[in-house]
Backbone:
């Protein structure tokens, strides 16, 4: 019989789905795995694979603020009597960072402060039993007047207050913990934010005697050394591990039931071609977002890849060096490539390491893996495109935007040759010509035009990584340079790039913008990092642009002569 339940498109609150009698694929046995699992668990999964809904389900299971037992009475977990005895026994701290997508640190930190404030407001009843000093701290959080260090210990303190009030250890649930980190990487404040996030998480998760359980979700496991240092009790359950592999995304049996419930079983072959193909440690997994949208609309469409979140992927691939592009062409032609596989990715390496890029694509849901096996110290796997939906993204959103391979790659090699061999006037001329002839007016006309030029140059020079260490958006001296090329042979020339958009609102022209950029390099002492390495042969390259029009000047670090 055809089902008439509403498909919960865009609804991630478990209670709302159950109470509104929305269609629900039962993942409640995740609760059992969490309870029997490690004290601190991280679930990295691609976006829109059910992370927020699962975390919401855990929230209503643990939460002792109201009776939620009826929400689970018809679910698989209700048959687990020993587990159900734990329902409603703990206070819960529930945080989601999924909407923290700021373009600078100040706005990002402000958003996080408000999120922390909201959770403190939700537990306002605690104020009745706090001492004088605890109340003062609580009030500062509510008024958003707390110090930076106060926010670093906010969750730890809230844990203590909840424990003292309820006489039960709280459960911490953090959804999309890495979303602020993702934005910080894209917009150039990664190093600053990572310190705050590391301190925030370490304070509440490390050696916290008041903590019952912590569960986090995200897209990536950000490498231990960058954010999870000291958390020896962290259990990372990625797509490379068996633990909870079938609890995010839909299994084949679940999809078959979905289609049968909506009288759409005859559509299974095309559904499989478009939305199947993910491998979560042996489980064949379908994209749940696309399946639900199909059930709602009854038509095949690239639902997942047409949602937001692809911008970074597109940018990385559009500026990828020729080797990456050739490998991706193999993938698009239904081939596979063998690569080193790891789940501890550092964002800062994604645009500088081929292995990091491929693993980023894998963990983000744009590739699948097969034949995972150890070879010496490394794990290797065959990577391929999982389904037609993702293939659509690569074919129509990425490859079509690449430059003509036979012409532009040769031109770019010449430009790099001029740059590294010191023919800077030829570099200047050919770089300007290439930008004017190859760039789209629409690519370089918007608010992100500076980032477009930045990404293009970064992608162009990354092929030189065997001779240079390439750094992007790093602090040096009293500021943050755009790109730095550090020669491995210290007798060779180092190069610093600075990009600047002509600011017409400040009555700038190219002459003023060029001078402003040059002054910035000198006053901020960008060359200090190189000098500390014993490199004194340094050239500064300034690129100023207004849409497709580009002006380039260069000058030696110590003579200020172009």
Residues:
């Amino acid at each position: 019989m055809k089902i008439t339940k509403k498909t919960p498109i865009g609804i991630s609150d478990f209670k709302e789905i159950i109470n509104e009698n929305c269609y629900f694929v039962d993942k409640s046995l995740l609760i059992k795995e969490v309870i029997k699992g490690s004290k601190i668990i991280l679930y990295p999964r691609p976006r829109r694979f059910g992370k927020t809904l699962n975390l919401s389900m855990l929230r209503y299971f643990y939460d002792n603020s109201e009776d939620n037992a009826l929400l689970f009475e018809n679910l698989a977990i209700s048959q687990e009597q020993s587990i159900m005895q734990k329902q409603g026994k703990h206070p819960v701290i529930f945080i989601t960072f999924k909407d923290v997508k700021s373009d600078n640190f100040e706005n990002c930190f402000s958003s996080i402060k408000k999120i922390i404030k909201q959770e403190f407001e939700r537990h306002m009843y605690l104020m009745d039993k706090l001492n004088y000093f605890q109340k003062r701290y609580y009030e500062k959080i509510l008024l958003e007047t707390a110090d930076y260090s106060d926010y670093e210990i906010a969750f730890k303190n809230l844990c203590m207050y909840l424990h003292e009030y309820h006489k039960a250890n709280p459960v911490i649930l953090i959804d999309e913990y890495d979303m602020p980190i993702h934005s910080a990487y894209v917009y150039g404040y990664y190093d600053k934010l990572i310190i705050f996030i590391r301190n925030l998480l370490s304070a509440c998760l490390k050696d916290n005697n008041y903590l019952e359980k912590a569960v986090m979700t995200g897209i990536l496991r950000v490498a231990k050394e960058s954010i999870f240092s000291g958390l020896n009790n962290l259990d990372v359950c990625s797509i490379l591990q068996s633990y909870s592999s079938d609890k995010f995304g839909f299994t084949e049996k679940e999809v078959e039931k979905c289609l049968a419930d909506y009288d759409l079983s005859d559509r299974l072959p095309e559904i499989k071609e478009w939305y199947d193909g993910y491998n979560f440690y042996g489980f064949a997994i379908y994209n749940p977002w696309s399946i639900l949208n199909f059930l709602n609309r009854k038509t095949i469409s690239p639902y997942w890849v047409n949602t937001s979140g692809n911008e970074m992927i597109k940018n990385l691939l559009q500026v990828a060096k020729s080797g990456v592009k050739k490998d991706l062409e193999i993938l698009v032609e239904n081939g596979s490539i063998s690569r080193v596989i790891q789940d501890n990715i550092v964002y800062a390496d994604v645009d500088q390491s081929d292995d990091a890029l491929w693993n980023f694509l894998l963990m983000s849901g744009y590739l699948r893996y097969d034949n995972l096996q150890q070879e010496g110290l490394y794990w290797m796997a065959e990577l391929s495109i999982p389904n037609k939906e993702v293939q659509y993204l690569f074919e129509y959103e990425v490859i079509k935007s690449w430059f003509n391979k036979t012409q532009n790659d040769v031109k770019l090699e010449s430009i790099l040759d001029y740059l590294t061999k010191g023919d800077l006037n030829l570099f200047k001329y050919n770089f300007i010509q290439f930008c004017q002839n190859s760039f789209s007016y629409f690519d370089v006309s918007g608010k992100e035009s500076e980032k477009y030029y930045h990404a293009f140059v970064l992608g162009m020079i990354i092929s030189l990584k065997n001779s240079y260490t390439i750094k992007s958006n790093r602090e040096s001296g009293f500021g943050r340079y755009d790109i730095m090329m550090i020669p491995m042979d210290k007798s060779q020339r180092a190069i610093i790039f600075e990009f600047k958009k002509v600011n017409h609102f400040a009555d700038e022209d190219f002459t003023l913008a060029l001078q402003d950029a040059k002054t910035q390099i000198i006053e901020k002492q960008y060359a200090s990092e190189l000098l500390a390495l014993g490199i004194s042969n340094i050239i500064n390259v300034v690129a100023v642009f207004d849409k497709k029009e580009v002006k380039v000047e260069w000058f030696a670090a110590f003579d200020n002569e172009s």
